[in-house]
Write a structure and sequence with these properties.
Belongs to the methyltransferase superfamily. RsmH family. With about 325 residues, the protein is α/β, with parallel strands linked by helices. The chain has helices spanning about 10-20, 35-40, 55-60, 80-85, 105-110, 135-140, 140-155, 160-170, 175-180, 195-210, 210-225, 240-250, 285-290, and strands at about 25, 45-50, 70-75, 95-100, 225-235, 270-275, 295-305, 325, 330. The protein folds into two domains: about 10-100 and about 210-315, Rossmann fold (3-Layer(aba) Sandwich), CATH 3.40.50.150; about 105-210, Putative methyltransferase TM0872, insert domain (DNA polymerase, domain 1). The relative contact order is 0.14.
Length: about 325
Amino acid sequence: MEAAPHIPVLLRPLLAACAPVRGVWVDGTFGAGGYARGLIGAGAERVIGIDRDPLARELAAGWLPGFHGTIVLRDGTFGELDRIAAEAGAERVEGVVLDLGISSMQIDTAERGFSFQKDAALDMRMSQAGESAADLVNGADEGLLADILYLYGEERASRRIARAIVAARPVATTLELAGIVAGCLPRQKPGEKHPATRTFQALRIAVNDEYGELARGLEAAERALAPGGLLAVVSFHSVEDRMVKRFLQLRAGRMGQGSRYAPEVGAEAPAFEMVTRKSVEPDEAELAANPRARSARLRVARRTAAPAGRVAPRELGMPVLETSRTTGGRTRR
């Protein structure tokens, strides 16, 4: 079996927090298959992998048959992982792992348009279908672009950058967009992130509806997991981590449950118990082996027998575009 091309982030502490690993697991962000392989190696009987990127299936073609059905790969998004797991024959799901954001294989494939390091068409579509980053950059009005950059990328110069993008249209390539953004911001100092980092992050999140998918994926994991099953989520930036943290706090009954003197009437039974008290970060050894892990955070929780519930996006701290604007002939909210 061929080696995986990329190192799965925080795999060692994830497996330690979830030990003993057993039964059927769902890897909702399959990528190059690193977590799936790690789970099988740690004792999982079967892993159902899910990915919306056709590249994942291409990469798996050479090694997946060697696992003789213990790892299977299904097309789709992790927002529908409960349905996909059921259709794959999983009667009981003992664990779900989600590795959020963009994968190394997507960044390193220049023609996908995720990176500003090499020139390529502005694409950024994980599924390689639907509206691209170029459609958004060239079709959205200035106000919507500014909102996306501010809410999804936490870019303070969002209005200035949006104005410059609109003035420069049409914008066709990654380096062209990166140059426009760099021209709006102070000159980069040694060691600082590239000035276009937040803009590219924001556009990627918008194109792929990553925050909406995360909210749906957390609820789908809650529906799929059997009592005692484990949910492990690796996030890479503050908004994602906040959403995961708030979801687990809400569903573990740690928020909005009143005080011991005046408990909330009719509160739902907790659907999760926290396994990791706070987020787990990479140690020095992992950072030395994989510098891209520097911003990673792991949270793990155990499913109870309580019925699955719902959490409103605003309760998760999910950024929401307030105004209705038009881009590429369709309305975004």
